[in-house]
Amino acid sequence: MNKGHDQSQDHESSNTNVLTLDTGQNQNIEISIIGNPNVGKTSLFNILTGAKQYVANWPGVTVEKKVGTFKYKDATFKLVDLPGVYTLSSKSEDEKVAKDYIINKNYEIVILVADALNLESSMFLLLQLLEMNVNIILAINAIDEAKEKGRIIVPSPIIKTLNIPVVLTSARTGEGIDELLEVIYKYSLSKTKSRVKTRIKYPPNIDKFIQSFMELASNYPEIKINYSNYLENNWLPVYFLEFGNEDLNLPKSFLKELETLFDLDNLRAEYTKWKLDFISYLVSSSIINEGIDWSLRDILDHVLTHKVLGILIYIFAMFAVFSLTFNLAQPLSDLLELAFTSAGNYLSKVIPIPWLNSLVVEGVIGGVGGVLVFIPQIFILFFFLGFLEESGYLPRAAFLVDRIARSFGLSGRSFMSIILGFGCNVPAIISTKTIANKKERLALILSLPFASCSAKLPVYILLIGTFFSSNAALVLLLIYLSSIVLVLVSSKFLQRFITQSEDIPFIIELPRFRMPTFKNLAIYTWNRGKHFLQKAGGIILVATIIIWALSFFPNFGQDINSSYAAGIGKVFEPLTKHLGWDWRINTGLVFGIAAKEVVVSSYSTLFNVGEGSLSFALQNVLTPASALALIFFVLAYVPCFATLATIKSETNSWKWPIFTLFYTTVIAYLIANVVFFIGGIFI
Amino acid sequence: MNLEQIKEYIKENKELSLLDIKEKFNLSESEIKVLKPFLITFGIPLKTVNEIHSICEECPLNNSCKKKSEKDLGCCN
Amino acid sequence: MKNKNIILLIISILSLIFMILNISINFFYVFAFLLISITAFYGFSGENEVWYHKSAHIMVSSLLGIFTMAYELLGILFSLISSELSNIKPNIYVIIFGIISIVIFIEELNYLKKIEQEAKRKKSL
Ligand SMILES: Nc1nc2c(ncn2[C@@H]2O[C@H](COP(=O)(O)OP(=O)(O)O)[C@@H](O)[C@H]2O)c(=O)[nH]1
Ligand SMILES: [Mg+2]
Description:
The complex is a heterotrimer.
Chain A lengths: L6 H17 L5 E7 L5 H9 L3 E5 L6 E9 L2 E7 L11 H12 L4 E7 L3 H13 L4 E6 L1 H6 L2 E3 L2 H7 L3 E3 L8 H13 L14 H14 L3 H6 L1 H4 L3 H9 L8 H10 L2 H23 E3 L6 H9 L4 H42 L3 H19 L2 H16 L2 H14 L7 H10 L1 H6 L7 H10 L9 H11 L4 H27 L7 E4 L8 H20 L1 H14 L11 H8 L1 H4 L6 H9 L5 H10 L7 H8 L2 H13 L4 H11 L3 H28 L1
Parallel strand pairs in A: 1-4, 1-5, 5-6, 6-8
Antiparallel strand pairs in A: 2-3, 3-4, 7-9
Helix pairs in contact in A: 4-13, 15-16, 15-17, 15-23, 16-25, 16-29, 17-24, 18-19, 21-23, 22-30, 22-31, 24-25, 25-29, 26-28, 28-29, 31-33, 32-33
Chain B lengths: L2 H11 L1 E3 H8 L3 H13 L4 E3 L4 H6 L19
Chain C lengths: L3 H19 L4 H16 L10 H29 L10 H33 L1
Helix pairs in contact in C: 1-2, 1-3, 1-4, 2-3, 3-4
Bound molecules: guanosine-5'-diphosphate and magnesium ion (MG).
């Protein structure tokens, strides 16, 4: 877009540059890519650099730094991919990295990548870069998608008003990439002096402020030293006006003097208004939208994020998913059970050594097989949960739940953590990192084990299928909702002892809806289900063998009631007798600490069902009320080892995992008693 | 578009979606997009649900969880 | 569709009737129809809200009807696979309501598209 009549001049200057390039070996011209998140920065980066790239970290932070090189004509470029940001300030790690990079000016050119569909959001950053006097090329990307959606981008007003080169690109179709390369090449070779700089015309009041600010600052040598980067091109006063003194920390006396001269609040408002007007002008002159302003997404969200209806629809969605899980999976599950039973029968006839026979048939096939029969339920559940997640529905539900969470004193991203917790508590606990308030975060970490993770599913399915098969989905729904309530109430309760948190307001941007493809859903389901299978071959197998050994010795399977396993369970019998749980139930719970699925596999072994069904054996031992109490106990009690280890690493102390151990068990025991009592009345 | 009013409204309500603001102040899609960076300068962070991606990097179950390699899918369990 | 109040009324009354008919059959469908009815009823409120308020409630309640039918069809499909042919008793109410929902959803979508085109025409004039 920078095609002017000075093309021949550029060419001459490029020749002289080539010479200097050749003598100064490896003299790469450093350029960088900046832009809002998700505009195609990395896609363009990959197209430009191809395989010649490496990944590192920015110093001091965990933000990823991608660097690559590419050659165009006779020049070699070093390209840096900056993190996605909306503004250059210090509000987040990403922004700080980007700001520090830009302000240090160790580069020639910055390519600002904007998304043609969201060009409006990039304008702020564009102005900020111009205010910092950076050499910018504006690449308006995803132009293919814009054309598809009837959005026309007219770059000439931007080119004329701001005096910068603009290229329309598409990382998908490759459109405009050649032009971008050419513009980069020409722009980098026309040395700084020949580039026409844009002077931004501020309103007179702002100009006056900038001038006075700079004059005043020249009296402060410490400002000159500490803020030399900001002082160039008068960016310090502008930055101060926009973002205040929070991350600048200018000297107090300086601020005082400034405040006597200006009404800073008014000035700030005026500056913001000027910027908004300027951006609005640019937007209205360079974007032509065909069609009016409605989208199906807004229309659906109008109801789906409604305070009351939204929650009801979420409950409906979960109810549907659970019903489908039970209804569709049952026949398949029965088939699997048949297969395991006949395998067990066959092997019990073939293996002559008694202890090996018992190990294989009762331990491995009975135990691990007892868990594996739930493969259909687990995969079908993941499949439909995947549908909710992939379609973009789940974030909406999470947003609603979070609003409720707010009335429980939780703020910030608690909702996403809880939703993650339904999959696995480990990433859920890690995700609390985004919560700034330390105490609030701790309360949530300690409460997240109450989020019913998918490892508990086999236990629920076994017990619900055995005792509540006519209302299976409803009972599972009840468990899930109780689980959410439990996390919320628990963190509210814990915060009481920790102190109140301040509420930082924030805005949620909900993702687009999309129709999940069957392939994506299959991948999603497999990835989650695979984890279950791996556990079955690993920790569940090991735990099952240990349980078998404990139940087989010391009297070689003659009397299980005096085995080591019975000894463990009997320790707790005084506490659980009134709930109707005997030592076998207790032993299973103890080993469930290793992994929740082990509860099921150990019941298979301990009830020594062999040919008969575990359901039948359980029905002989438990009443529906004690089964329901058991379900709720499993929901709440001790998290698995992985979760405890994560709590330790996230809180940096053994105190909290140990606390969790006792806390969850006590709460679980209390809930089990309450449920048993209430259940005794109703069922 | 009155920035001060919008700012006040958000601070009162703490947690809103972009749609809430759009409907309350009768803004067009284009205006909402312009507004986004301004909100950030007001100290009102914009949270996108895509942020969960970053969690994968630190998850100890990372090895057994291949979700992060499928870029278009969500995150780990 | 022009007369949104009538559509909302049809949806809410019809779903209420079907809910009652399902009470002795299937609790899930009772919940589903109740939810659809409530969603449609909410559409009457809030005259001063955004212009698509009524459309939104029509669209979502019919979408819920469609999903409920999809649920029923999935169940039928699976019992076909597990060859329990004798056990297949399609819930006729759900299917009737689902088909009505599809018609309403498509009609409403076309109506919104028509508005869009009219606005475009006005703009270009
Ligand atoms: N249609 C279209 N999609 C694109 C284009 N460039 C990037 N994308 C998609 O936009 C998404 C975000 O791209 P990415 O490069 O990761 O963005 P970044 O966050 O700015 O680095 C990806 O799903 C890309 O496939 C483009 O030119 N056209
Ligand atoms: Mg990127």
